[in-house]
Amino acid sequence: MTNSPEHALSVLAVPAFNDNYLWLIHDGANAAVVDPGDADVILAALRAHGLTLSAILLTHHHTDHTGGVAQLLQHFAIPVFGPRNDAITAVTEPLGENDVAEVAALGLALSVIDVPGHTKGHIAYVRDGGDINGAPWLFSGDTLFAGGCGRLFEGTPGQMAESLGKLAALPDATLVYCAHEYTLSNLRFASAVEPGNEALRERVAHDTEKRQQGLPTVPSTIALEKATNPFLRYREPAILASLKVAGKLSSDASPVEAFAALRMWKNNF
Ligand code: ZN
Ligand code: FE
Questions:
Q1: Of 172, 226, 229, 248, most Cβ neighbours within 10 A?
Q2: Which residues have CB atoms below 5 A from the ion given as ligand 2?
Q3: What pLDDT digit, counting tens, does each position of 202-256 carry?
Q4: Domains of the chain: which residue ranges?
Q5: Phi first, then psi: what are they for 61, rounded to 5°?
Q6: Is 252 a catalytic residue?
Q7: Of all helices (H) and strands (E), which one includes residue 81?
Q8: By the 8 A CB rule, do 148 and 229 touch?
């Protein structure tokens, strides 16, 4: 990492549609946007904060994450980083596992992790932490949500479980910037599956209060997700017991079968 202290970066949440968050990473002058599904809200945020757009970063091909790209490119001649294995015609910098997205204007380097499952090419972006940068960041798109995970549109349960495992291995302090405000609904499911989890009970109270105040529950942290998110906890005896009591899982099931049963249960919850 080569960030210098004069490049102190912030992350701004730009709400769009019903429940999307578009993320603006900026240093007070230049900005990069993650998953601009809507250009108008980004153009307004850039104007309001006096920012120039320097790069677009995409996690996967869905329209609520890419729909604003063409319009933004009419205003800014900038690189579009995105997954090599999702078909997105606007991408100029195709990325996969172990690649680094360099946003020169921000002195920002984001490493790329392949996280197939929601789509077959979905990627996540990670900024390392450290003394200069502060807390590490994860832009997880529709893979890891606060309290949940994305639906399996193109990948298998085994792929998604492995992708989430890679994200869970990031440092505990990593801030998790996911793409939707689904938290309270995710936590309702989590509570049904693991009613005895004290950390989960505290999280429900805390995040419910945030929503009542009109505040985002995102970012969360990897530590909080590991303590409360059932899709990172599908090996826990209490969760396996809930799956069996509900008749969703046989007693000799593998961990991936447990993950698949959990994801299926959530689909119909
Ligand atoms: Zn999506
Ligand atoms: Fe989405």
A1: 229
A2: 64, 142
A3: 999 999 999 999 999 999 999 999 999 999 999 999 999 999 999 999 988 999 9
A4: 5-267
A5: -85, -10
A6: no
A7: strand 80-83
A8: yes
